């Protein structure tokens, strides 16, 4: 059975993939993963977080799915595991430009005061409505969100050998952060095939297009859809 390790967007939690555990069974074991985050005054690079993810992975018949920041961390974890002789079966990258582009993005949101930082993330669509409306929830989300933006905004992409596994890349059709031309550049990062798809929704298609994503994941991993679905 293939194990699909799922990584979250900035500020997200593995609970966001809880429904996938049932929805993608049988034939696929979904394991939501929390990437390591900097905290307590310590610094951490995105590559170090990815190495922490790689240490959590069982390397027999596995694949990665990552959304936004999670896609870049999954890519870097796949690099580590490939260099160690245990490449993933496939990398699914959702809502993310290629790593060199993500590395070159503007890098100042993490430096804003708390209120301004949260307001800007909310404007970009990176906070659930319930969090925006509740001061206590905003306070709970803030440390993880700021830690993740620190990982993203200090990411220093390093050139290296391409992956040896195929890549499936997704974007929501109305995603303002990733255009189709940029999504197609994922082919630059593998020696194998790349499949590019647009799905309904914006930057968070996991909320609105999970059925499309699940069908694509099964297809690309050659796992039949159960007859009752």
Query: In angstroms, what separates the terminal alpha carbons?
Result: 19 Å
The oligomeric status of these chains comes to single chain
What is the share of helical residues? 25-40%
Major β-sheet strand ordering: 2-1-3-4-5-6
Structural class: alpha/beta
Q: In sequence order, what are the helices and strands, one letter per element?
A: EHEHEHEHHHHEHEHH
| Residues in β-strands, percent | 5-15%
What features would you describe in this structure?
- The protein is α/β, with parallel strands linked by helices.
- It has a single domain (2-104, 159-220), classed as Rossmann fold.
- It has helices at 18-23, 46-54, 69-83, 99-103, 114-123, 129-133, 135-153, 180-184, 205-208, 210-220, and strands spanning 2-7, 28-33, 62-67, 91-94, 167-172, 194-199.
- A 6-stranded parallel beta sheet has the order 2-1-3-4-5-6, sandwiched between helices.
- Strand 5 (167-172), helix 8 (180-184) and strand 6 form a beta-alpha-beta unit.
- Helix 2 (46-54) crosses helix 3.
- The protein is globular.
- The chain starts with a strand and ends in a 9-residue tail after the last helix.
- The relative contact order is 0.16.
- The mean pLDDT is 90.
């Amino acid at each position: 059975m293939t194990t699909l390790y799922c990584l979250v967007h900035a500020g997200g939690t593995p609970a966001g993939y809880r429904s996938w555990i049932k929805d993608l069974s049988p034939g696929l074991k979904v394991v939501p993963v929390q990437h390591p985050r900097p905290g307590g005054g310590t610094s951490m690079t995105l590559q170090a977080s990815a190495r922490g993810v790689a240490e959590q992975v069982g390397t027999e018949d596995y694949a990665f799915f990552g959304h936004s920041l999670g896609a870049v961390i999954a890519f870097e974890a796949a690099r580590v595991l490939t260099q160690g002789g245990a490449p993933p079966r496939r990398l699914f990258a959702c809502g993310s430009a290629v790593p060199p582009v993500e590395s070159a993005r503007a890098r100042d949101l993490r430096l804003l005061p708390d209120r301004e930082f949260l307001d800007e993330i909310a404007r970009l669509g990176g906070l659930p409505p319930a969090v925006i409306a509740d001061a206590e929830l905003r306070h709970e989300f803030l440390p993880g969100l700021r830690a993740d933006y620190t990982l993203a905004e200090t990411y220093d992409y390093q050139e290296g050998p391409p992956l040896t596994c195929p890549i499936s890349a997704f974007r929501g059709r109305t995603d303002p952060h990733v255009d189709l031309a940029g999504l197609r550049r994922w082919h630059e990062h593998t020696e194998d095939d790349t499949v590019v798809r647009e799905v309904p929704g914006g930057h968070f298609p996991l909320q609105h297009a999970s059925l499309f994503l699940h069908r694509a994941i099964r297809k690309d991993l050659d796992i039949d859809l159960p007859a009752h679905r």
